[in-house]
């Protein structure tokens, strides 16, 4: 009997998944499987990549990463998939264990999202627009505790002598609730690079992890150097 996926999962894209759901997917799919699926695909993140026609070199680059599945989920062609479509890919590689564990909790996310959209109760953050489209030389990714350093760095890099234009969320986002779709759209369409401020608190931040992994995924997809690390405080 064929495995049936709830149609309500078409209401949610991979990009819309909360960070904890992405991490849960990674915990399953990052573990490389020895046995292949019935159709000859790897039963881990590589099998998803193969079905999306990623090249051998792209998959090889993913294999070198600490969180290959997290980076794969950040690829534009993956992020825009519905969760329903992603789970169909999981069926193709025989990962019914993931479906059994994740469908109930993600359906809860779908219900929350539908109710939120219906009631218009969540205000999305959007960049403050002074022009029709603003281009930034870099998005600055940092832990909240490092904001003072970020302000000093920004003040220097945006001087006329240097001439950079940076996106700093505490300065350039309207007051509201941070959502991951906002960041993804911003870094894909308006920022050329990402500066990451490395510190002990950076590595403790789920937001910093998501943002840097998303940018790393874009870098692989576009074959460009996007991440620019700055060591602020050593571990």
UniProtKB/TrEMBL annotation:
Segments traversing the membrane: none
PROSITE patterns: TIR
A GO molecular-function descriptor: Toll-like receptor binding
Coiled-coil zones: none
Sequence ranges assigned to domain TIR in this UniProt record: 134-235
GO biological process terms held by the UniProt record: defense response to Gram-positive bacterium; innate immune response; MyD88-dependent toll-like receptor signaling pathway; positive regulation of canonical NF-kappaB signal transduction; Toll signaling pathway; toll-like receptor 4 signaling pathway
SUPFAM superfamilies hit by this protein: DEATH domain (SSF47986), Toll/Interleukin receptor TIR domain (SSF52200)
Any one of the GO CC terms: plasma membrane
Protein name per the record: Myeloid differentiation primary response protein myd88-like protein
